[in-house]
Amino acid sequence: MKTLILSSLIIFQLAANSLAQTLEWKLEREYLNRNIEAWDISPLEELIISEQGTLHKLDTNFNLSFTQSRKGFGNISKIDARHSLKTLIFSENQQSIGFLDNTLSFQEGKIDLAQLSIGFATQVCYSDQTNRFWVFDEQNARLVRFEGVNSSVARSEISNLMAITYSDMPSTMVERQNQLFLFYEGVGLFVFDYYGSLIRKYPYESALQVYPTEKYLYILEKDSIVRFNMKLNKEESVTLPKEGIEELRVFGNKVYLKDKKGVSKYSLIRLK
Question: Which domains does the chain have, with CATH numbers?
Answer without folding.
Answer: 37-212 (2.120.10.30)
